[in-house]
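Hi support team,

I'm filing this because I wasn't sure whether my run with zinc ion finished correctly. The job status page said complete, but I'd like someone to confirm that the output block is well-formed before I use it downstream. Pasting the exact inputs I used:
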Amino acid sequence: MAPEVAKFLNPPLCANSQRTVDDKLLPCENEAPFVCSGCQFVQYCSTECQQSDRKHHKVNCKSAFMTGTWVPAWLKDKRKPAFVDAPDTKIKTYGPQNDRQLSRHQHCFQAAHNGGTDRIVNQVLNLLFAASGDIGNIVKTVRRLPKEYQGNCTMVCNDNDFQVNGRNVILLMTVLHFEPEVSTPIMIHLWMFNPEQVDIRDRNTLAFDPAQRETLVNFRRTGVLLPFGCSTKEFTVPNPWPLGWMVNPLHGWDEPDYMKHAQVAKADHYGALFFFLRSTLQEFCVLIRNMNIKFRVYNRDASTLPQVEKLQFDRIEISSLCDESYWGPETAIRTFGPMLKSKHENPSATLLFLFLSSAVNEMEKLDFEGQMHAFPLSRKKILWELLSVTPGKLNSLEKHEPQSVAMAQCSVMLFNFDRLFQPMHRRVIRSALENGLRIKNKHTIVKPWPWSIFDSSTKDEFNMMRRHSRSGAERYMELQLA
Ligand SMILES: [Zn+2]
Ligand SMILES: [Zn+2]
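And here is everything the job wrote out:
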């Protein structure tokens, strides 16, 4: 591989990126086994490099975040936060709309639940992503196929957002056209570019510890996903497909998974994500090139898919089209039920639903008393404890004080969503019955409530949910032909 390309796959980690030689910017390219003990998020090759980079690094190593004197920008500027007028519960982004999906994408296939690896090695597999959003679900799904899979697989992806599709097509063509070592960094930077919106950034960092906050802010400043100390000198052309500003690239992946990839700089979350994606995408690129996978991409209203797509599918993933705020489950079942493979062809053919807002909508219909009923008091104590708020002090907090914002953001996590979801659950059962489907007795792809908070949840788990913008109201449902 040409050295100028290799640099993107293996970016030099020595944080002496501002080094000048003969008045020319020449970032150090040595191996960097030492970590700055002050912050734990940059690495150096030597004490010489660390010393020569001191002035530059001090800004980050001793920033307001790191010294504990940080307050959100809206508080510092004594103004109302921007998200008060643009609540992120409504889809409103500068980038492609469906980037919200990034935080929920799921693999939709588990070999183990399809009669085991042996059975599916040569099987024809048809997978439909009816409202696919970004290609995270495709990446995750391909990696779940058995390595020795030799069957013919067709992945049909649809999204009615032209920008989202444009980016997906280019990402997939990149994989098919270039060697994995070249396509991997192209994919990372084409996909994960994410410019800044200050208030959303600050609100999202409320659940972060100081070093995590500093690394997020640094990432948002450049928009480029790289380990903290890396030079961004080569990144001179803005990406035409930025992620929406609500989106945080960390959201789509599980924190314990990517943190395992952290190098010596253990506090660098975005660096860890870079290394995690590098290995995940490289594996994905190799698999795609070795397997018989065909892609078909549509840019249309999902309700018209049955008119153009004549395949029958093993898996149909429709994201949250089934939610009350979109089609409701009845239309979703009528539209996609007939597209499943027959029981004879594949007894475990599954239609996967995700409800994001149904339980929350039910909660919003309740009056104060009803809400208190659906919000077990025992859990209120958990919230106070987890946020380190004393009940007495709560009323005296200013409305936009970080703790009040966090309270508003978090209290929703503690509702008993299972109860609030009952009316929707009944609607799905009824409609499934009328259309020859049924809810699977036991989920085989994803748990019904993958992100709920339990009375036994720890502060760490709770903060992880906050960092990943999960509310606990996400409800998955798996349906099959009756
Ligand atoms: Zn440092
Ligand atoms: Zn160096």
